[in-house]
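JOB MANIFEST
job_type = single_chain_structure
chain_count = 1
residues = 276
[input]
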Amino acid sequence: MAKRFFLFGLGFSGRVIARGLVEAGWEVMATTRSGEAADCPGVQVLPFDRDHRLPAGCLDGVEAVLSSVPPDDRGDPVLDLMADAIRAAAPAWLGYLSTTGVYGDHGGAWVDEATPPNPGLDRSRRRLAAETQWRERGAHIFRLAGIYGPGRSAVDTVRAGQARRVVKPGQVFSRIHVEDIAAAILASLGRPDPGAIYNLCDDDAAPPQEVIAHACALLGLEPPPEIPWEQAEATLSPMALSFYADNKRVDNARMKRDLGVRLKYPTYREGLKSCL
C-alpha cells in the first residue's frame, strides 16, 4: 500500500515536489485555492484557504505533511485552521518551506543555518514567525533561496522582453532550481531529523546582471544595457526594490552533508540551459 503525503500549497515548487513524490510511489493529496491543478496527474487536489476549510478526516493515515503556503497578515493559514488536525494525524514527517530572507541583509557575507535570523522585510518577519511555529511542532524547515525553473527563469524574462540589467555594486543573490528543491524534500523523507533547518540553494551566489547576460547568450541575443543602481532605484517597483534590500551568500553544506543531496544544477549556468 502506497504511503500517503499531504501537501499544502500546489504552487510552482509544490507541483514539482508532488510529481517527484508520485514518481517515487507516494499517494499524494494537495491543496490549491481553487481545488484544481490540471498539470499534476496522480495528485488528488482539494480547495483550501481561509474561506475554504478541508473536510474532516482528510489527513487520516497521512505519513508526511509539507506546507508551502506563505503566511498572510493574520499569520499562517495552515496552522490557524489545521493545527489540531495535523496533531491528531501525527504524521511521521512534517516539513515547512520558508525562505533565506529570514537572515536579512549581511552585506554580501556568508550565512548558514547557525546564523541568527534578522529579517528586515515585513514578509520575511512573517515567514520567521511561521517557521518558528512549525519548528515547535517538530517540522523540518527548508529555507529556500530564489526559486527558478522552466517557465520562471531569466530565460523566460529575456524571451518576454522584460529583462533589465540593474547593477548594484557588490549585490549577489543565491538561487535554487525547483528540481533540486524537490530532490531535497525527497532526501529528507529518507533521513528524518525533526526540527532541523536546511538552506536550499545552489553553489554560486551571483550578481543578477550576470545571470541575465548568460540567459541572453544562451538565446543568442544581445544583453540589455547595464543600468546603474542610482538610476534604476527610482524606477523599480516596491517589490523589486525589496529584493535588493538583502545581500548575502547562502551556505548549502548542511543540505549536502546531512541529506546527501547532489545538486542537479549546481549553478545558474546549468539551470538556465535546462530551461531552454
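[summary]
Residues 265 and 271 are 5 Å apart (CA to CA).
The radius of gyration is 19 Å.
exit_status = 0
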